[in-house]
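USER: I would love a firmer grasp of how sequence relates to backbone shape in proteins. This is the protein in question:
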Amino acid sequence: MSEHLITNSYNKEFNIEEELKKLPASPGVYLMHDAKDEIIYVGKAVSLKNRVRQYFQSSRNKTAKIQQMVSHIARFEYIITDSEMEALVLECNLIKEHRPKYNTMLVDDKTYPYIKITVGEAYPRVMMTRQAKKDKSKYFGPYTNAQAVKDTLELLRKMYKIRTCSKSIKEGENNDRPCLYYHMKQCDAPCNHYISKEDYQSNIKKVIDFLNGNYKETLQELTQKMNEASENMEYEEAIIYRDLIKSVQFISEKQKMTDSDKLENKDILALETSGEDGIMQVFFVRCGKLIGREHFHMNISEQESRGECIASFIKQFYAGTPFIPRELLIQEEIEERELLEAWLSKKRGQNTYIRVPKKGSKERLVELAKRNAALVLSQDKERIKREEGRTIGAMKEIAALLDLENINRVEAFDISNISGYHSVGSMIVFEKGKPKKSDYRKFKIKTVVGPDDYASMEEVLRRRFLHGLKEKEEVKTGGDEGLGSFTRFPDLIMMDGGKGQVHIAEKVLEELHINIPVCGMVKDDNHRTRGLYFCDRELPIDTHSEGFQLITRIQDEAHRFAIEFHRSLRSKTQVHSVLDDIGGIGDKRRKALLRRFKSVEKIKEASIEELRNTETMNRKAAEAVYGFFHNHHL
């Protein structure tokens, strides 16, 4: 894809009329920014020149939402692409990255479990994953019920004794002893070559057949084994096979045929709206079987048509899911149908079709999805309002308390150490009242010696904002927009502490010429959140309000994240063994020595010959160990 990001858009003297004249008549993506430099809208165009200029022309056809959005545009930028298809792909990526205020947004960001079989390995593993990659593995799914996937995996391990470990298995090389799964009869220990490669691969084939829905052969095999065990009066063994049969029957019962289109993969989509709330109901049909259904909340505008909302959902949802079905069934036509079909087909590697069924079983499925969406919308409306109160509403309460116009993004910082040991800093991010964990960052303190929280915090803040300024400068000189999470500055900084921590942050911001309000999250004598310190005074706050509850959650999350990082560093240090300090003694030799002698004290007492006769050891390594403990060179 050929892209060119305009670089003059960061000029503070941005002249919209002049920049409109420079727009090319090329396909691409445009990004609208407000006065705070937030991206408030992302769109694509066949001709950037025609599309972007339309926003600034007087027209009675503009919706109230578009008119409001245009009134907040301070500048725009654009990315040129070679085709409308490339513009669509880029638009999807940018919307997901920036979640602009005026785009119709999919609220939920869910991932679905798959069953992965690593068929590229000599002894494949079967596991659950939430990412289907283009590798040598085989994937089944997606499934909507993670617990059902776990139950299926447990059943497959009991039936076919497939390994779960990630050990590298090489011909002629044995491990010390088989693991617990072998003794539980849930693994045939291929790591010790207790099962041949051919027999193991035969079991993998049976697993694949099972996941493809071929339960009949599995049931016949289990029934035969149960009967044989019963005839031989091995009743405990027979009971195990009987329970396995029941488990297979239970899983197969969940897979009901939805229509006569066997082996078809399709998603059925239907939207129901009420005001600015929307519910998209999706039925997932795989190999002709309904494997599950899911609903998604959407923030929409009353002026937007149902077709526009459905198109927005398709772009956002299928941009993030690795599995594309052969067919999407929707309730009404959409303007970009052919373009979206081409995009989905390219992602899938085979043709994908978007259809509006008018009769028959497919039409009934769409109608069923629509009724489900309406039911969820009526049931969830109050819950959605309560959730907004806890998140967006709580942000508004904090903004009002601090007399700020608007708060969307909050960054909170904390320092963790034990007597100065491994001092670390944490940065957590909340957007629209919810944690944005992809933007969390950890800092190892580099310049401060000892337990100095103020100096440590100053280092963390300076590194965070210098990094952000550097990223902004790179974008300004022609880099890629939005690639660094530090590029976006917060609307508010919240420090875990009072006056001292706040003044440290204000000092750093002043030196870097950055204007961001800072407040401190103050705790009482019992280490519970008490309120906010802002503009050199502690503000009274209703401890029962949603705003106060959000402040508590932010403070607890910042503390948790810092402690978690600190604990991980301590754990890594404590794993160190004295044997690691001996030249020529690596991981394998260290394990072999400990296996034979059981303790470091016994290794100290061993002679050179005893050390040499240990697995993986030679004379040079034995002499190195003996010399290390006896303080002389041999």
Observations:
- The chain has five domains: 8-102, 114-257, 266-275+295-380, 396-563, 578-630.
- Confidence is low (pLDDT under 50) at residues 1-11, 254-262, 479-483.
- Residues 360-390 form the longest helix (31 residues).
